[in-house]
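User: Just a sanity check before I run the rest of the batch. Below are the structure tokens for the first item. I only need the designed sequence back.
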């Protein structure tokens, strides 16, 4: 087989390790910035983590914006941009999950920079992202802003959106509740799984994604069980870093296409839908992406005694189904109040998704998607 691929790696500076949150001020100074805006999830703004960010930034901290809401709504973004312009902000720090980082990305992308140099280079205000979940927004050049009135999400992808610096500090994830640990952790697992079999993947991303799967398989149940387990939290966060890198550099496939269609229609938590759909899409792809799913089986720790690759591919899907159940997450669409009569519209929505093109098994009609949704219902 002749291997051919193109790839552009998007790069952020990454600081990883316990206690690294305290280096945010040094990073701001290294970037030569003087007027920082701190974007923070409301639930975190009275935490010790937020206090450490403030202490580390010191006199650089000009303003805080804590009106972060889920799904990055237009009104939240507009207010943030107006504040950043009024206070001549030259750096944004975002602490939180996908919503806080999404608001941070939107502000840095749309607020005008005061420096002539950055204007000439068409760059954005730099963003320092400090993720507190495993969803991976910090690794991507993608921004999703939701118009709540129209119920529409506008997705924008631009290399300038990716954060300049990412600080992965496992201690910051200690307080992530077990349900959010489980759901955002399975989202990271899904990013790795899809990056292994996506048509737009490549050998380097596959290696990273398979290693991410093994780490998440080991660490996620331990993190759900004991939030303050530093070893498990560290390995899980490395897995999430690998998942984010995979997500940023390989096109997601059918699973994410389905999750976005479902999420857009019912405004459900992305990680919960992920958890329900993942084993079903893996099973659907098993007869086409057989060797990729057999490799996933190995990464999940399924012993290689059985040499029938197709059987191993199906075992990988079965194990993921059990894994999701063991984490206490829902396993059927009906359990999250989705009506069977809504499934056809969801399937039709998936057909407009780019993710269909990157799926290893061809999708030619909404009927194929509907059959998968019925199994998951
Ligand atoms: Fe995702």
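Assistant: Here's the designed sequence for the first item:
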């Amino acid at each position: 087989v002749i291997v051919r691929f193109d790839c552009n790696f998007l790069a952020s500076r990454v600081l990883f390790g316990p206690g690294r949150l305290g280096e945010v001020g040094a990073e701001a100074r290294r970037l030569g910035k003087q007027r920082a805006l701190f974007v923070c999830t409301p639930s975190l703004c009275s935490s010790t983590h937020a206090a450490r960010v403030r202490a580390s930034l010191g006199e650089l901290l000009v303003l805080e914006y804590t009106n972060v809401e889920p799904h990055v709504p237009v009104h939240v973004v507009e207010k943030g941009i107006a504040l950043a312009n009024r206070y001549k902000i030259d750096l944004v720090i975002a602490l939180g999950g996908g919503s806080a980082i999404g608001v941070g990305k939107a502000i840095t992308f749309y607020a005008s920079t005061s420096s002539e140099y950055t204007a000439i280079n068409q760059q954005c205000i730099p963003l320092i992202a400090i993720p507190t979940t495993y969803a991976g927004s910090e690794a991507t050049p993608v921004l999703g802003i939701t118009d709540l009135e129209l119920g529409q999400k506008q997705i924008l992808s631009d290399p300038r959106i990716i954060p300049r610096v990412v600080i992965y500090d496992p201690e910051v994830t200690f307080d992530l509740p077990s349900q959010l640990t489980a759901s955002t952790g399975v989202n990271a697992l899904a990013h790795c799984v899809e990056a292994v079999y996506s048509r737009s993947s490549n050998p380097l991303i596959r290696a990273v994604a398979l290693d991410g799967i093994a780490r998440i398989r080991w660490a996620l149940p331990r993190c759900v069980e004991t939030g303050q387990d530093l070893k498990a939290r560290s390995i899980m966060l490395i897995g999430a870093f690998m998942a984010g890198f995979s997500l940023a550099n390989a096109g997601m496939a059918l699973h994410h296409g389905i999750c976005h269609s479902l999420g857009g229609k019912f405004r459900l938590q992305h990680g919960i839908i992920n958890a329900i759909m993942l084993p079903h899409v893996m099973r659907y792809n098993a007869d086409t992406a057989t060797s990729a799913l057999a490799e996933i089986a190995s990464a999940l720790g399924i012993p290689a005694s059985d040499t029938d690759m197709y059987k191993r591919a199906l075992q990988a899907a079965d194990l993921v189904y059990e894994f999701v159940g063991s984490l206490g997450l829902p396993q059927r669409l009906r359990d999250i109040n989705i009506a069977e009569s809504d499934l056809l519209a969801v399937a039709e929505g998936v057909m407009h998704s780019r993710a269909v093109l990157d799926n290893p098994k061809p999708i030619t009609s909404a009927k194929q998607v509907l059959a998968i949704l019925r199994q998951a219902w």
